[in-house]
Automatic annotation (TrEMBL), chain A:
This is ABC transporter permease subunit. The keyword Transmembrane helix applies. It comes from Paracoccus aestuariivivens. Residues 73-257 form the ABC transmembrane type-1 domain. It is found in: Cell membrane.
Automatic annotation (TrEMBL), chain B:
Gene3D superfamilies: P-loop containing nucleotide triphosphate hydrolases. It holds the Pfam family ABC_tran. One of its GO terms (molecular function) is ATP binding. PROSITE patterns: ABC_TRANSPORTER_1, ABC_TRANSPORTER_2. Transmembrane segments: none annotated. Keywords: ATP-binding, Nucleotide-binding, Transport. Residues 25-247 form the ABC transporter domain. This is ATP-binding cassette domain-containing protein. InterPro entries: AAA+_ATPase (IPR003593), ABC_SmlMolc_Importer (IPR050093), ABC_transporter-like_ATP-bd (IPR003439), ABC_transporter-like_CS (IPR017871), P-loop_NTPase (IPR027417). SMART domains: AAA.
Amino acid sequence: MSLTDSLSAARNRGSGWRPSLPKPEALLPYAVPAAILALWEIAGATGLIADTVMPRPSIIVGTATQLALSGELFTHLGVSAARALAGLVVGGGIGFALGVANGVSRLSETLTDSTLQMVRNIPHLALIPLVILWFGIGEGAKLFLVALGVFFPIYLNTLHGIRNIDPHLIEMGRAYGMTSRQLFRRIVLPGALPSVFVGLRYGLGIMWLTLIVAETLSASSGLGYMAMKAREFMVLDVVVLSILLYAALGKLADTLTRALERRALKWSPAYAGR
Amino acid sequence: MQAVNLLPRDISVPPMLRENPGASVSIRNVSRSFDGNRVLSNLDLEVRPGEFLSIVGQSGCGKSTLLRLIAGLDKPSSGEVLIDGQPADQSGDRLRIMFQEPRLLPWATIADNVEIGLRQGSDPKAIHEALTSVQLSEKAGMWPSVLSGGQRQRVALARALVSHPSLLVFDEPLGALDALTRLTMQNLIRDMHAKAGFTAILVTHDVAEAVALSDRVIVLGQGGILHRVDIVRVGPTSRGSAELAAIEAEILDAIFAA
């Protein structure tokens, strides 16, 4: 069969396909947000809420299109996403590594856990004045704050996950001649994974929160900067747009993690058939 | 009403001539204490290659402790446990354990769970053979969570048998199963033992199970062996027969005399 044959075959197969409308139940979660948007739009259009107080959705969509066409929106989005990701990788990576080390080694836990528990009780945003003095207002400060914020949920949940592995499984692994490396790869790591995912999803929330605060305080690019600049010039629609984008990015990160979780934990009855 | 028939052991092939003659177990003057509390004291026991031995006794009599010593999961406070003349913890994949719980990895497929028992570098075809022998080959790609309790315990049996061990120890492996599944599993274990010829040591609190499966039953109590019964089978015996009932009564008397 030639390439053109297979292409036309694929097209023929595709011709029978019609986009089916989603089931009404699937739309239910969106009913309340849609109703709020509609009311908001009507209230704005009728002058019930002045556009200088709260610009209505259609204005924000217009602003978003304008900023997207000029490329400015994507520049700021990209910068913010890169900061978030860098902080997540650094803070999450260290948190995971320490969680594993303290979950596996009693000595490592004795040495570090009480210190970490002390540091954990300091709200990491309280360090902002100190961080600005140390790092200035450059990327270092934002990376540090985001990494610190993400670190704890991932550290604590990794440690908790390893602690809660059924000791019977470890005993079975030993009795069946597994080496420490095999025990870790086949029992400890997969056993801790559900808990690590809980930490990751929790950490993602803190990641966005920290980033907003850090970018609002001091930045020359990113979504927080866009919002602060807009506030100075009283461009309210851009301010609201930034806030909405944060919500959308947070939801996107959570959705991606959920998809990853479902894939990685497909063995679990909690995810079976979903 | 028909009694459940238990297949007689294939006595035409002496244990020593089977492909896998089974390991001998020597327990010499073994004591084990926990925080000064002596559970086993100066215990001696010899298990012949290919023998099926059951250990019964009241809870806390030290039968699980003895089994853990034989399996190399624990060390005696004094004395020695030798398997084919070597210390128990050096027997590697010649010794396999079946626990009371199946202890399957929930995140590994049935086949991958059986693979855990496979000897390093041996043919993965053995996984399929082991699963076929417990009638679960069609479930190889599934997760343990979809199996019933009895099926999970059969996977655990396949995992224990896949390396063709010469000694298999069972720590109340059927205790958590319902009565009918337990009978099916007992027959399966008997068949496997008759075919593969490994030495089997079973800890159980079910005297009927011990009598149905073993060549010899020992009653443990007060840190030592209180009673020994050899069960000689000549021809088909069925559960509930008068001879087996008499042996059961004898063992129960020994347990409660403690």
